[in-house]
Design a protein that fits this description.
The protein has one helix at about 10-15, and strands at about 40-45, 55-60, 65-75, 85, 95-100, 110-115, 115-120, 130-135, 140-145, 155-160, 165-170, 180-185. By secondary structure, the chain is mainly beta. It has a domain at about 10-115. It has a 12-stranded antiparallel β-sheet, with no helix packed on it. Strand 10 (about 155-160) and strand 11 form a beta hairpin. The radius of gyration is 20 Å and the shape is elongated.
Length: about 210
């Protein structure tokens, strides 16, 4: 029996609360999702509370081995799913949906490729629109796109290098293009001159796709 991986939760809990944009609400009691063709549903009581808190759906592959298709978890034992996990044909995690405030609705979605986080979608508020999408390369944050005014369009682009915010692009007139670049790296600790302002050449446009 495999335990669910929740190492990412503390960081996300500090980052947001609300709903995940553009996703269908995930409601219903645990285990309510019907098993698909060829799938087997298994339940687990990891806390020995007398009630199941993990629901695992598996399917037997062509090689005869059982593989996890998806998994649902009730973290706070309130009878509702809080984490939905989806796996590819090789058994690797592809997508993880999390209800951070335990209201029965998704707040964060994490996308993985070959076991590494590549995109994280977060939402602030209850309008169902994207507010923050973070992009990762080799497990490191490289870009954030934000909808600060809630109109459904990206208006702030953050570019990160070496774990530090390097520059920020801002859309002032709402046309979806950067109107102003701001350098954000501060001066070195020894007081020497810091890096120059944002380069004149505009970085590649961030599409959010």
């Amino acid at each position: 029996m495999r335990r669910i991986s929740l190492a990412f939760l503390p960081a996300i809990l500090l980052a947001c609360a609300g709903r995940t944009p553009g996703l269908q609400d995930v409601k219903g009691p645990p285990g309510s999702a019907a098993a698909g063709p060829g799938e087997t549903l298994s339940t687990y009581d990891l806390t020995r509370s007398g009630k199941p808190n993990v629901w695992k759906y598996t399917r037997r592959g062509a090689d005869g081995k059982e593989r996890v298709v998806r998994r649902e978890s009730d973290l706070n034992h309130d009878g509702r799913i809080d984490v939905w996990e989806y796996f590819d044909d090789a058994g690797a995690l592809e997508r993880q949906i999390v209800d951070l405030d335990f209201d029965g609705k998704a707040d964060a979605v994490l996308h993985f490729e070959k076991g590494q986080l590549v995109r994280k979608e977060l939402s602030f508020g209850f309008d169902g629109k994207p507010h923050v999408v973070a992009y990762y390369e080799k497990g490191k944050l490289v870009r954030k796109e934000k909808d600060d005014n809630g109109d459904g369009k990206i208006d702030t682009w953050e570019y990160w290098e070496g774990g530090e915010l390097d520059r920020v692009g801002v859309d002032i007139d709402g046309d979806g293009k950067v109107d102003r670049w701001e350098a954000r790296r501060g001066p070195p600790a020894d007081g020497a001159a810091g890096p120059a302002a944002a380069p004149a050449a505009t970085p590649p446009a961030a599409t959010g796709k």
